[in-house]
Design a protein that fits this description.
- By secondary structure, the chain is an alpha+beta fold.
- It has one domain.
- Helix content is about 25%, strand content about 15%.
- The strands form two sheets. The chain has a four-stranded mixed beta sheet with strand order 2-1-4-3. It has a three-stranded antiparallel beta sheet with strand order 5-6-7.
- A hairpin with a 7-residue loop joins β3 and β4.
Length: about 180
C-alpha cells in the first residue's frame, strides 16, 4: 500500500495533502490518516496491481527490480529487458538496505535508481575481516565480466569476502597493476 500511497499522496505529489504538513507521510499514514483515505489508497493499489500484473496477489519481486543494461547515465529501463527481483524498499519506508525504485516511461515494473551502492560489514580485531557487496558490479564497461557480476548478490544480500591482506588475494587476482611499469 505504501508504494502506491507515495506517488499519489506523498511529499512528491503535485498537490500533497495539507493535513499532514509538518510530519512525515509514514507517520501520517500510521497515526493520523482517516480510515476512508487508507481504504481508498489500498483499493487504488489493488486495482493498479490487477491492471498491471493480472492480480493484486503479485509477489513484490515481480514488481521491484534491479536492471543494468548499459553504461548510460540516464538508464533505458525496460520491462522487456532482463532484470533481477529485489526485496529491499526505500530507506524512507524503513529499509536499512535501501533500494529506491520507481516506474519509467510507462513501465509496469519499478526499477532501482537510488539507495546503497555498496554495503559492508567490518570486524576490527587482531586482523580485519569484512564482507561486502557492490550494486551491479565493479566495472562501468558493459563488455566486462564485472559489469553486472554482483547484481544477484546485491539483490539477495549475499555479501562476499573482502580481501585486506596479500595472502588472501592468492587465487582471486586477475591482474596486478604497478604504477610506472
Amino acid at each position: 500500500m505504501l508504494a502506491s500511497w507515495f506517488p499519489v499522496y506523498g511529499p512528491s505529489a503535485s498537490s500533497p495533502s495539507e493535513s499532514y504538513a509538518g510530519i512525515s507521510a509514514t507517520d501520517y499514514i500510521s497515526s493520523k490518516a482517516p480510515p476512508e483515505l487508507l481504504l481508498h489508497a489500498l483499493s487504488a493499489a489493488s486495482d493498479k496491481l490487477a491492471a498491471d500484473f493480472g492480480t493484486w496477489k503479485t509477489p513484490w519481486g515481480n514488481i521491484n527490480r534491479f536492471q543494468r543494461l548499459t553504461d548510460d547515465i540516464v538508464h533505458p529501463f525496460s520491462d522487456a529487458g532482463p532484470s533481477i527481483p529485489v526485496a529491499f524498499t526505500s530507506a524512507t519506508l524503513g529499509s536499512l538496505a535501501s533500494f529506491g525504485a520507481r516506474s519509467f516511461r510507462g513501465s509496469k515494473k519499478i526499477y532501482g535508481t537510488s539507495g546503497n551502492s555498496f554495503v559492508a560489514v567490518v570486524e576490527f580485531g587482531k586482523t580485519v575481516r569484512a564482507r561486502a557487496v557492490t550494486a551491479g558490479g565493479e566495472s562501468g564497461n558493459p563488455a566486462s565480466p564485472h559489469f553486472n557480476d554482483q547484481a544477484k548478490r546485491y539483490s539477495t544480500g549475499d555479501l562476499r569476502d573482502v580481501y585486506f591482506y596479500r595472502s588472501q588475494l592468492k587465487g582471486h587476482t586477475e591482474r596486478e597493476y604497478h604504477p610506472g611499469n
